[in-house]
Fold:
Amino acid sequence: MTDVDPRRVKAGQIRDVLLQMAAESPAGKSISPDAVARAIAGKDEKVWRRLMKPIKDEAARLAKDGKVIMIRKGKPVDPDRVRGLYRIRLRAEGEPMPVYEAPKPEDDLLDDDFILDDDED
Structure:
């Protein structure tokens, strides 16, 4: 596609492209969200990068609905807690919903804007 306005791309279009690309990938293989963005917006990085957040939001919705699984570092990741790089794959027919690992305490610290020092007066 060319001349795509990322502000006008609808969630349904993202969902359709994401599911189609995931279905076309080999069984058990994942796709990257930036590949979905490029499929919608083309090669102009300034355009497709603006789709990354809406793609992540739609992937999370699909994961909560049990249609896809979001993967980080080779493991399923809770769609509400995914941070950083992730990939997406279809959930196989009959595959149970993933059980997510509980977040580690140090993971929560990384999300804070700052950490208070106990030695401060």
Remarks:
- Strands lie at 68-72, 75-76, 87-90.
- Residues 111-115 have pLDDT under 50 and may be disordered.
- The longest strand covers residues 68-72.
- Residues 6-111 form a domain with the Arc Repressor Mutant, subunit A fold (CATH 1.10.10.10).
